[in-house]
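User: Batch of two.

Assistant: Item 1 of 2:
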Amino acid sequence: MPSGENSGSKRVLHVNNVTKNYISYAKPIYRLYSFFFKPKPSWHSEFQALKNISFSLQKGETVGIIGRNGSGKSTLLQTIVGTLATSSGEVQSFGRIAALLELGAGFNPEFTGRENVYLNGTIYGLSREQVDQRFDEIEKFADIGSFINQPVKTYSSGMFVRLAFAVIAHVDADILIIDEALAVGDALFAQKCMRFLESFKENGTILFVSHDSGAVTSLCDRAIWLDAGELKLDGDAKSVTEAYLEHLYSQEQDISKQTVVEVEDVAKEAFSETAVFEEFYDVRAEYLKNSNLRNDIKLQPFDIQGSSFGSGKVEIRDVCIRDLTGRKLAYVTGGEKILIEIRFVSNASLDSLIVGFLFKNRLGQVLFGDNNYLIHKDSPINVEKGKTYCAQMGVTLPYILSGEYVISAGVASGTQEQHVQHCWYHDALVLNVVSDHMVHGLIGLPLGSCTVKALDGA
């Protein structure tokens, strides 16, 4: 893997027309024959794992790689770190690369965790003295206790990840490459790793591979979609993950872009029954409503020409938010009880209908969402061809951090695990949150009560 001075911009990695071919022999003996004789076409077949892949990473970028199993993600990463030779093309890096790929990669199973820290430190170009200076921090980050002095062959997969990540976090890398290995760690350690990656982004470059599109949109500025060894799409993380979602559905069903239709005015009497809420009062509500801390949210109207896909058996005509009296809202405040309404026409008779929504931030990270599946599991909703339907889901809107958000809406049929997507709008509603009182997190929940009292005998 060539490396050198980065002339010009702040480019730290350049992948140029990389192709990786594998040869599969019909019989093991043919592999031996090929060393001594010119191979015959019948002896082997060729498989292209990567096909002319090209892209560059700039300093400070965080790029996600997505794609189905077998799409070439791991092969690409191995060519970048140099553990796999390319068949053609080249990879140029302009800095130190640290990678967390396959579990146990770079570890000697007979060595202790301590010995492997020194081994890996040397591989990444650190002197023994430098590893000495960082060892306590590495041990603390890994947090595997006395196992640091045990052979790593006795480690669980989670311990492998802990130690491997702790090492790459302390080698002064310019580029971090993280594969799906993080998925086997426990939740607390995964959160620690994500916090580290967020801080690393300030000065370093990250190449992040995950099947979790939410993690990609949350962490990454940009995403690359690989499909059958080809670079399918390279762009902003939100757009690429949405296109990938459409592709996944297209593999299982016949989907198409939704056509624009005229919106019919459905009478108010056609609404489904209004949701009933139990009384619940936020003890801060009056103060918030009468101060500059009120969580004001402006709603933009549904755009029927927005980005959508589906089988075409359902056409979503409108998505809106109403109050409990049925009034369609252009403005709402956090903490209020609302009805999220999805109005649609069925172009076919369908059984076991699922209507739902996802609330996302501007990067496409899902904050919350729901559908009617569990509510109607024992009495599924069936719809008739040619009729217009109105689904309403009553929720207490959480308090939301200032910024721009979207509500995606969809109508499918089947089950949670196996369903056909008939109509999905990526950004059905756009919400602009113009003020908030948030201190922590992205969303806040209405507070029903808060007491502080001394305990008897304490």
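Item 2 of 2:
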Amino acid sequence: MSFRFHPEALRELGESAMYYEKLQAGLGERFVFNVESAIRGVSENPLASP
């Protein structure tokens, strides 16, 4: 299964990452990593949590 972000969602993800990065160095990067990990998990096993 593949996915793609709606352009507005991608913008919001970037803005959120910048916000978290301002709070603490590296936090924005970890936020994006966790979002991508969650999406990857759902993509690999979409029936795990119906």
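Residues 7-41 form one domain.
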